Amino acid sequence: MAEKATILLVDDTRTNIQLLVGCLKHQYRLKIAMNGQRCLELAQNPPFPDLILLDVIMPEMDGYEVCRQLKDNPNTKNIPIIFVTGRNSDEDEEFGLQLGAVDYIAKPIRPAIVTARVSTQIKLKYQSDALRNMAMHDQLTQLYNRHFLIESAANKLAHVDRHGNELSLLMIDIDFFKHINDQFGHHAGDQVLKAIAEILKEGNRREDVVARFGGEEFVVLLEHCSLNSAIEKAELLRAKIEALAPMGIEVTASFGVAELMKQEQTFVELLSRADAAVYQAKELGRNRVVAAENVYVEPHLDKKIV
């Protein structure tokens, strides 16, 4: 049975909250906030809302300002917002929609209208989430794809620049993968990729980004992680992959590890050093972890970083 969608109701008048609860409690999981600040907090805590019904006229922080802050926050910008308000002029509705709301319900609250509008927006939200998920993920392994990795890396580099956090990267290349495809077939190769993807996903923190970079290559981006910690993680993953034997096929991988240096300004610089370390691991016999030297490496990746 599908899990109920979560709706966050925001209104400073208890009677209005009770009316909305009465309309929606049987079909949805509800969260309630009586002011704007509480709305901002609940929107970022699980269960994350699939939709917010937001009053406009509230003390301290009105609904328009709450909407602005939700849309400015990367963690909440994709949550659809329906304004529920006594301000029902065309100008008010236009202003709310320009702020990013998806709909505008005028008070007094009419249960049939609320139920219908909410149902429509929940369906649209699920469709949007499905499309966004497809755009961000590699369809074979369900890891993040290269495009999402590069976008996330840019954000993480900006975060590191502001706060001085450590940022490390693992680059993983499956050893002799062409031989696996040639000997066992591409279906077996796909199963190997999926099995290794599961290993890479295990035990990662929420802020880590695990992506299939292309072909038999994977990247793990680790914020708040020093080079030594990244090396330890890489060695653990290397051992797990070596012990995996999916479909009875012996598999190993070579790892390159790099930590962002202060003088590095772009993701491609960090990635290039990790790639050079993978190349060294291959030269040294494969199935090993090599840490990149803390020296600048001229980017030489054949893969286009866009």
From TrEMBL:
GO BP term, example: negative regulation of bacterial-type flagellum-dependent cell motility
GO CC annotation: plasma membrane
PROSITE patterns named among the record's database cross-references: GGDEF, RESPONSE_REGULATORY
Response regulatory domain ranges (all copies): 6-122
CDD domains membership: GGDEF
Catalysed reactions, semicolon-separated: 2 GTP = 3',3'-c-di-GMP + 2 diphosphate
SUPFAM superfamilies on file: CheY-like, Nucleotide cyclase
EC number from the UniProt entry: 2.7.7.65
One protein family per Pfam: GGDEF
InterPro entries in alphabetical order: CheY-like_superfamily, Diguanylate_Cyclase, GGDEF_dom, Nucleotide_cyclase, Rev_trsase/Diguanyl_cyclase, Sig_transdc_resp-reg_receiver
Keywords: Phosphoprotein
Ranges for domain GGDEF: 165-294
Top EC class, one word: transferase
Signal sequence annotation: none
4-aspartylphosphate sites (modified residues): 55
Cofactor dependence: Mg(2+)
Superkingdom to which the source organism belongs: Bacteria
Gene3D superfamilies named among the record's database cross-references: 3.30.70.270, 3.40.50.2300
GO molecular function: diguanylate cyclase activity
PANTHER family from the UniProt entry: DIGUANYLATE CYCLASE DGCM-RELATED, REGULATORY COMPONENTS OF SENSORY TRANSDUCTION SYSTEM
The protein's name: diguanylate cyclase
